Amino acid sequence: MIYTVGEMAKMLSVAPSTLRYYDKEGLLPFLERSGGGMRMFKDADFEWLFIIDCLKKAGMPIKDIRDFIEMVMKGDETIGDRLELFNKQRKAVEEKISQLQATLDTLNYKCWYYETAKKAGTTAVPREMNMEEVPEQMRHVKEMLQKAHSI
After folding, report:
1. How many helices (H) and strands (E) does the chain have?
2. The domain at 2-74 falls in which architecture?
3. Which is nearest to 20 in space by CA: 36, 38, 35?
4. How far apart are the C-alpha atoms of 46 and 62, rounded to whole Å?
5. Structural domain boundaries of the chain?
6. Contact 41/3 with Cβ under 8 angstroms?
7. What is the pLDDT of residues 40-61, one digit of tens each?
8. Which residues contact 147 (CB under 8 A, 6 or more apart)?
């Protein structure tokens, strides 16, 4: 089946302009065009586009995505290079997830802190709590904040 830019964009949950941008940046060398120059997407293009979108969301630069596509087009001789590229990006995403988890932990702590303060009518209550009084999952954040405050 043949799809328009709009139809394929809807299938991928991206804006049509995103697919046009990918094409402009040379990420869609497999893309066919009609006699009038209209982009024609096939079912087989969905996987390519899905992977491109995944890599973009993973923070991979367009240049590296283009390099990946060129590797695929060269064939099996580039399997090792592709694996290395994906391992590198996976590590970057894992580091980002770790950073985001630390951020979420801090936000959760501050939500607990202010919920506790609101119930007590003062921030003195959660601020002056002994570590044992702080919920266990929040203690590492309080410890980190205390260390940072004492520096």
Report:
1. 7, 3
2. Orthogonal Bundle (1.10)
3. 38
4. 18
5. 2-74, 93-150
6. yes
7. 999 989 999 999 999 999 999 9
8. none
Contact 42, 32 (CB under 8 A): yes
Q: End-to-end CA distance of the chain, in Å?
A: 64
Could you tell me the CA-to-CA distances from 54 to 27, 103, 111, 146 in Å, in that order? 13, 23, 32, 39
Q: Smallest Cα–Cα separation from 149: which of 117, 127, 133, 116?
A: 127
Tens of pLDDT, residues 109-148: 999 999 999 999 999 999 999 999 999 999 999 999 888 7
What does residue 14 show for φ and ψ, rounded to 5 degrees? -130, 165
The model carries a pTM of 0.77
Question: Counting Cβ atoms within 10 Å, is residue 62 exposed (0-12), middle (13-18) or buried (19+)?
Answer: middle
**Residue among 68, 92, 63 nearest 81 (CA):** 68
Residue labelled with tokens 């801090």: 106
